[in-house]
Every structure is written in C-alpha cells, then in structure tokens.
C-alpha cells in the first residue's frame, strides 16, 4: 500500500512540475533532454522520435499509476488529492515570494491560463466520454 501511494504521489506531482515550465519550453526533462540531444548529436528526426518515445513512456506510467489509484478507497484518494493540492498551493506561495510585484502578476496570469486550459481539457474529456457512451 505504501509503495502504491508513493508511486501515485510521484505520478501526480508530474503535472505540477509541468505547470511550472514556461510555455513553449523544453518538455520532459528540459535542459537535461536538450543537453542529451546535443551530446548525442541527434538529428532533428531523431530528436522527434526520442520525444515521441518519451511521451509514450510518460503516458504508460500515467496509465499504470491510474490503475493503482483506481484501487484505492475513495477516502484515501480524496485525502491524497487534498494533500497534493495543499502542497501545490504551498509551492506556488513559495514561488510567488521570490518574485517582484510585476512578476507575481505575470505568474498569477500564467497560473490562471493553465487552470482554464485544464478545465477545458476536463470538459472536453467528459464530452468525449459521453459521446463514447452514446455510441455504445
């Protein structure tokens, strides 16, 4: 049980890390990935294929984690989500404390935009699920 919760916490922290990345910036490892690509002297085609493989790996890990999360009792899932949300808020507060007032404003706007996109994705996913049920 402890391993499951640890794995779930790690998997669920990935979106928080993704939110902290600047828009249009490197994905899945950022500077490390770019350094690896440079050191290996990968062509653009090889870089695209590597990114595809990394994306697929991330999706697979998410699916595995979700399978274990689905087995948790509702109360434990809720407690975990609450704890993750509190940690996210604490992280954002610490980040904001490092910023100048004009930077805070831009940071808050970025967070708001990301939250709006997340809500749109959730609404779209719900719509897709509804359409799939109707098709059955």
TrEMBL record:
Extent of the signal sequence: 1-20
Q: What is this protein called?
A: LTXXQ domain protein
Segments for region (Disordered) = 79-136
Q: Which UniProt keywords apply?
A: Signal
Ranges of biased composition (kind: Basic and acidic residues): 99-136
């Amino acid at each position: 049980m402890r391993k499951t919760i640890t794995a779930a916490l790690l998997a669920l922290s990935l979106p928080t890390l993704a939110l902290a990345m600047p828009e249009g910036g490197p994905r899945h490892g950022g500077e490390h990935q770019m350094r690896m690509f440079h050191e290996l002297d990968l062509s653009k085609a090889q870089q695209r294929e590597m990114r595809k493989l990394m994306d697929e790996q991330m999706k697979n890990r998410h699916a595995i984690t979700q399978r274990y999360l689905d087995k948790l009792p509702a109360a434990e899932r809720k407690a975990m989500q609450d704890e993750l949300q509190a940690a996210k808020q604490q992280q954002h507060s610490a980040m904001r404390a490092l910023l100048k007032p004009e930077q805070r404003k831009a940071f808050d706007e970025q967070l708001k935009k990301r939250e709006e996109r997340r809500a749109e994705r959730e609404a779209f996913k719900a719509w897709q699920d509804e359409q799939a049920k109707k098709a059955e």
